[in-house]
What we know:
Elements: H1 5-8, E1 10-14, H2 21-33, E2 40-44, H3 46-55, H4 59-65, H5 78-82, H6 90-96, H7 108-113, E3 117-124, E4 130-133, H8 141-151, E5 161-163, E6 166-170, H9 181-186, E7 191-195, H10 210-216, H11 221-246, E8 250-253, H12 267-291
Parallel strand pairs: 1-2, 1-7, 2-3, 7-8
Antiparallel strand pairs: 3-4, 3-6, 5-6
Helix pairs in contact: 2-3, 2-4, 2-12, 3-4, 3-8, 6-8, 10-11
Active site: 45 (nucleophile), 170 (proton acceptor)
Protein name: Patatin family protein
Keywords: Hydrolase, Lipid degradation, Lipid metabolism
Amino acid sequence: MAHSTLLQQTALLFEGGGMRASYTSGMVVALLEEDIHAPFVAGISAGASNTANYLSCDGPRARTSFTDFAADPNFGDWRTFVRGKGLFHAEYIYERAGLPGMPLEYNWQAFQQNPADFRIGGFDIESGDTVWWGREHTRELPDLMRRVRASSTMPIVMPPVAIHGRTYVDGALGTDGGVPITVTEDLGYERFLIVLTRERQYRKEPEKFPAFYRTYFRKYPAVADALLTRWWRYNQTRDKLFELERAGKAYLFIPDVMPVANGERNVAKLNAAHRLGLEQARREMPAIKEFLGL
């Protein structure tokens, strides 16, 4: 395991982005190849999956989760959507596929043995609060997988997730708009390795159909409000991250190009995106190691 004082002071953060994580899962693989283990990891949405895979030290699962697994016949489509199970069949993807003997079996023992702390974020649809889950909430494998699912639940295309009497959707609707920087700063971290899923010049635009969201989520106005204001929070967060980068407090892994959208299902395109991400991560690894004091 790689050690340095700087590494032990640095938090690793993963942005969400649906199947764009096919690209950023290359960073998970590259870090594990170098035996680099951060003391704290946080992720939202697809970044929660990258977080879980990184903590289980499973590079092959990190890749497969966002590439070949999309060809699984139970992955979800319009038929599962019509049945109320989501365009992405989330209950299968997150809660069943990772069980022992299943196609995406999760290394629970490695996760338990990993000393790193972590947070994954969800959005409470009634209160509008951002909720953070860590080790104290994940005593068993189903606890972890249900929270990764909740964090990843894109509104409309995936059904909300109930946990202990509260109901959650995608954590990207909450604080910071999708990058878990504030919760990490609140825990005392001042140095960050941040894995983003959009190109450097990207700026999020306001939603084009606000009336639709107001109507669709009339029972849950906090969700509509969060969706309609997320663009502003997200852009503010990006500005903050670039300031941290200029100050030498953050290393930002930013895709040179993002060749897939968040809903991409084409396995060839997803594998190509992963290869590009892995190549970029390996290319930048000397600079990353220098930032981490390795």
